[in-house]
Design brief:
This protein is α/β, with parallel strands linked by helices and 276 residues long. It has 12 helices and 6 strands. The chain has a 6-stranded mixed beta sheet with strand order 3-2-1-4-5-6, with helices on both faces.
């Protein structure tokens, strides 16, 4: 076939998905356009998935399984593809997050996923779609991931969670006033749990702030430490306890500079009421 691109299924999850899809399509003797009609998409979309130029959504993969009678094989393959779209290190981090005994979170600019309401998470996803940095399906899957991560905290015994929010997390409007009011209520409810401590790091800390980037520190059941931090393009998972200890020291300093728990909750209550 003229201009038929060869596929290397070992080059990554996307290539493995595309190669298997092409093999089954060829076995049926279908063109990409013919398969596209069955999948309710265009032939060019099928082509883009086959050569790895476009990642398969869960909906697309489910339809492929339905057309070829492959159970949930393509849905599982698509999950591996979508996971590779996460920042490097984050997928590995998630596996440790689900087992950690203690969390220490510091966030800047946005409420962290573990504390977001579904509406807040959805509004962030809608914004990503409008700005063209995510497809609708990808945004929905991120909202689902937030819910899954939050559900993993409902275990026995529950993990201890320390959270320090930069003041910018509270002042950045996401959605409308009703959405933000509900998000502030969620923070207050979270802070009332016996296994949580919530503080706000105000702008007035100034140059006494020991941290400038978001970071998560995990204490595992065996008391080893891990840290996870993100830049714009990648995530860094540090598994060496000795390397995490200086980050933990900075976190303790940040907690000392942050508002007390009562003062932090008072600030959130004022914002919820819309008062200065």
């Amino acid at each position: 076939m003229v201009n038929r691109r060869e596929l290397d299924p070992d080059s990554g999850p996307g290539a493995a998905f595309g190669a298997r899809l092409r093999r089954l399509r060829d076995g049926k003797g279908w063109t990409q356009a013919e398969l596209g009609k069955l999948l309710k998409c265009t032939g060019s979309h099928v082509s883009a998935v086959e050569i790895g130029r476009r990642s398969p959504t869960r909906r697309f993969a489910t339809r492929v399984d339905g057309v070829f009678g492959t159970g949930d094989m393509f849905e599982r393959l698509s999950l591996a593809v979508r996971q590779t779209a996460l920042l490097e290190g984050f997928q590995d981090y998630l596996g440790h997050e689900s087992r950690a005994a203690e969390f220490r979170l510091y966030e800047v600019g946005v409420i962290p996923g573990l504390l977001q309401t579904p509406e807040y998470a959805a509004a962030l996803g809608d914004s990503a779609v409008r700005r063209g940095v995510a497809l609708r399906e990808q945004a929905d899957e991120r909202v689902d991931l937030v819910a899954q991560r939050q559900a993993s905290l409902a275990r026995t015994p529950p993990p201890t969670i320390f959270v320090v929010l930069d003041e910018s997390c509270l002042l950045r409007p996401v959605g409308d006033d009703t959405l933000m009011d509900a998000q502030f209520t969620r923070l207050l409810e979270f802070a009332e749990r016996p296994n949580t401590v919530l503080q706000v790091a105000p702008f007035s800390i100034g140059d006494r702030r020991p941290m400038t980037l978001p970071v998560t520190i995990l204490t595992m059941p065996d008391r080893t430490l891990m840290s996870y931090a993100e830049s714009a393009n990648r995530g860094d998972l540090e598994r060496d306890t000795a390397s995490v200890l200086p980050i933990l020291t900075d976190y303790h300093q940040l907690q000392a500079e942050a508002l007390s728990r009562p003062a932090s909750l008072a600030m959130i209550r004022q914002l919820r009421k819309g008062t200065p």
